[in-house]
Amino acid sequence: MKVIEIKNLHKIYDEKTVPVHAVDGIDLTFEQGEFAAIVGPSGSGKTTLLNMIGGLDKPTSGEIIIADTDIKTLSASKMIDFRMKNIGFVFQSYNLIPVLTAGENVEFIMHLQGKPKEERKARIKEMLEAVGLGDRINSRPNKLSGGQQQRVAVARALASKPKFILADEPTANLDSKSTETLLEIMEKLNREENITFIFSTHDARVMKKARRVITVEDGKVISDERK
Amino acid sequence: MINSISWKNIWRNKLRSLVIITAIAFGVMAGVFSAAMTNGMFDSRIASAIELESSNIQIHNSKYLENKESYYFIENADSILEVVKQNPNVKSASKRIKITAMANTSASGAGVMLYGIEPDIEKNVTKISEKIADSLGTYFKAKSKNQIVISSKLAEKLKVKLKSKIVLTVQSLDGTMVNSAFKVVGIFKTSNSAFDEMTVFVKYQDIANIINLDATKAHEIAILLKENQKSDEVATQLKSKFKSLNVMTWKEIQPEVGMVAEMLNFSLYIFMIIILFALGFGIVNTMLMVVLERVKEIGMLMAIGMNRMRVFKMIMLETVYLSLTGGVVGMILGAGIINFFGKTGIDLSIYAEGLNNIGYASIIYPSIGFDYYINTVIMVILTGIIASLYPARKALKLNPAEAVRTEI
Ligand SMILES: Nc1ncnc2c1ncn2[C@@H]1O[C@H](COP(=O)(O)OP(=O)(O)OP(=O)(O)O)[C@@H](O)[C@H]1O
Ligand SMILES: [Mg+2]
Questions:
Q1: What is the distance in angstroms between the Cα of B396 and the nearest Cα belonging to chain A?
Q2: Residue nearest atom 31 in ligand 1 by C-alpha distance
Q3: For ligand 1, what atom is nearest to the CA of residue A51?
Q4: Which residue in A195, A199, A193, A194 sits closest to A212, CA to CA?
């Protein structure tokens, strides 16, 4: 089942002065249950692509179809709603609300979704256990390691039951041990729960774990390999 | 949940929050205290104007006010008094003879307003009796005739002491001028020196005999109510009962005091409003720093699905909580100081001369009603809401894609 369909996607920054073709005609399709890495040199357009898929940025032209909706047509406020319901995000850093505990951070997105309290409580535990942090439910982010914080972010993204999870360089700030743990968890969730992950990375070890590697350069897909 | 985030967010940068909270606390404290000072000062002025001078309501012959002649009296004062006393809001009422007189001593002379009163009844209406110091006589003795109670100010002017003689010249009902000697039995002092200088009291019966007034008649009926707020209501009731007579409330009798009472509310709030307005800029500044500092976090929140309403609410609540914390601390401090000085009073006797000349007491007991605190809370909340608008707008303008890219 297709979760994302991208057709002839373009993004041009600074159209008036010095135009930058950050994304230059990309066609891609993502299926349910993929574990895909977007790789490429710095400035190749990975973040721009992910931001557009996530509806954080508007394409200059082209289509992104998620759940039968061309998300370009959504108004800003509809887009926020759409993100909340359909897309999970894990950023490189600043993922968590510092004043809330790990549990509350996971709960927060379900609160935004208007889920009842009992359901939230049950799911917090389930999600934190899934990322191996069942015992850190009451820890504030500043009491967690960088890797643990990223795992909480994954748990939060999962908690909202999104169609897929976007992660822009989720391991960029992590040491190799934490990187490995995070990837193992993501992989396991993908394998066991059929969660769709799309992430960008520079890291060769991360690439190796991916079952699909999409390489971009100068805003174009230059290779798309499935293992 | 957004509620608790906003509250906890305040304490992320404790020092910065404490600085603005302290500023708000001191500002609000100053505002509450100055309002209490003003209120205490004017309240006591109004209270003494009512208790010592005008009472709540007065009734006169309609012509008497234009022309204070002794023959413009109220015909059946005693029966009117009976009707007045039946009103459940009335605490007490008295009839008076009130005419102008010349007071002369061997040393000096002065024009005065002479009140002929029944001391035992008058005591329950005006509190002049309590304004006579122990060493300065009494509010009339039982038996002897032709006693007079005057103020210390007038005593000074006429150069008289207790037991001195004063000759009063008044016009009797038939128009002839009559002289009678009175003996000073009491010397009072209020905080209104203009009133003091003008006013003398004698017994109703003594002066009635002198001017030949029938004892059922009087120039003035003074009415003290159980509650000041009922003045207008009772006055309206009495007006409809006694159509031919003139019924006035204390605000009409002493328009300068009435005006103070009308303006008081406004003047109590204007100072607080100015303080909060100034503090508002500090709050805006603090919240702008907050928004700038949290660009990435706010971007992240918008990315994961926090809509504009919620972002706005989060920042607005944080601003309101910040303001309210300062406001509540300020009000508690203010209430403490007011409570302290409310008991001991603040002695302004260095300026007392001036204050007494315009009718104000020289010791001020700051006091303020509970509703002032409630309204201050509302104003602080409003200040918070208004101060949050600009920073919240800044936050809403953030583009989540840019925000999460931003390097801090
Ligand atoms: N807001 C912007 N305005 C102008 N140009 C931009 C903007 N954002 C990105 N770019 C440019 O678009 C191009 C693609 O940037 P992007 O951040 O998508 O690359 P990336 O592959 O994520 O790089 P990195 O690996 O360093 O994160 C770059 O040339 C970048 O300078
Ligand atoms: Mg990038």
A1: 11
A2: A43
A3: 18
A4: A199
- The pair of three-digit structure tokens given for residue B296, joined into one six-digit string: 């990435």
Nearest to B12 among A91, A99, A111 (CB): A99
Nearest to A77 among B300, B308, B405 (CB): B308
CB B260 within 8 A of CB B92: no
A contacts of B311 (beta carbons < 8 Å): none
pLDDT of residue B142: 81
Give the separation between CA B380 and CA A202, rounded to whole angstroms.
51
Is A80 in the B-facing interface, judged by CB distances under 8 Å? yes
> Which is it for strands B132-137 and B346-347: parallel, antiparallel or unpaired?
unpaired
The residue whose CA has the least distance to atom 17 of ligand 1 is: A47
Nearest-angstrom CA–CA distance, A29 and A6: 6
**Nearest CA owner, ligand 1 atom 6:** A13
The finding on whether A51 has its CB within 6 A of some atom of ligand 1 is no
Smallest Cα–Cα separation from B41: which of B235, B206, B268, B222? B268
Query: CA A111 → CA A78, A108, A133, B376, distances in Å?
Result: 18, 5, 20, 34
pLDDT tens for each residue of B318-346: 999 999 999 999 999 999 999 999 999 88
Count of CB atoms situated within 10 Å of the CB of B161: 11
What is the rounded distance in angstroms from the CA atom of residue B174 to the CA atom of residue B196? Answer: 29
Q: Are B307 and A81 within 8 A, CB to CB?
A: yes
Q: Which residues of B touch A83 (CB under 8 A)?
A: 303-305
**Closest alpha carbon to B114 in B129, B128, B99:** B99
pLDDT at B258: 82
Q: How far is the CA of A42 from the centre of ligand 2 (A)?
A: 7
CB atoms closer than 10 angstroms to residue B23: 17
Q: How many CA atoms lie within 13 A of A129 on its CB side?
A: 6
Chain B positions touching A91 (Cβ under 8 A) are: 300, 303, 404
Quickly list H helices, chain A: 46-53, 76-86, 102-112, 117-130, 146-159, 176-193, 204-209
**A149 has a chain B CB within 8 A of its CB:** no
Check pocket membership of A48 for ligand 1, CB cut-off 6 A: yes
Helix (H) or strand (E) holding B102, with range, is strand B90-104
CATH 3.40.50.300 corresponds to the domain A2-226 = yes
Report the alpha-carbon distance of residue B164 to residue B183 in Å, rounded.
6
pLDDT tens digit sequence for B211-253: 988 888 999 999 999 988 899 999 999 999 998 899 999 999 8
Hey, what are A217's tokens?
Answer: 């350069």
Confidence label for B34 from pLDDT (cuts 50, 70 and 90):
very high
The domains of chain B are located at: 2-49+258-403, 63-243
Q: Where are the domains of chain A?
A: 2-226
Mutation choice for ligand 1 from A26, A47, A52, A53, CB with most ligand atoms inside 8 A: A47
d(CA A206, CA B29): 60
